[in-house]
Amino acid sequence: MNVQEMSYDECIALIKREWLARLACADGNVPYIVPVQYAVAGDKVYVFTLPGKKLKIMRRNPHVCLQIDQLKSKHSWKSVVVDARFIDLSAEECREERDQAWSLLAQHTDWWEPGALKPTAKLAENPLSTHMFFSLEIVDVSGRKTQS
Prior knowledge:
Elements: E1 2-5, H1 8-17, E2 20-27, E3 30-37, E4 39-41, E5 44-49, H2 53-60, E6 63-73, E7 76-88, H3 95-105, H4 121-125, E8 132-147
Antiparallel strand pairs: 1-8, 2-3, 2-6, 4-5, 5-8, 6-7, 7-8
């Protein structure tokens, strides 16, 4: 097995092709990691969630990372780490970007499942505090891959 670095363009291509990541954030010295479904536009990754631990942590410390993998076999895989900055889209002035997040995520089947409650079209017009969208602004990417 030969492990190689991925180029920036290869990393971005993998990020755009996949839809599931592990989101890591830290509360002081305590790390927290959860799976999230996502969508990408430009240099932003969009995520839907319900209020909870990860939102509380990211609001205090906006420095996060994502790990996105593509596994073909034990000896053939790609893995990308995205360093990012959390942006809360709950404010009214973020409505346009929140709508964009909704539209992008809605292109994936069952995109809302990790959030547990399927939002309705009515919520898109007047979101409740139980349905949250946020973006992660890509700061840096790095990746590794194998070729067997």
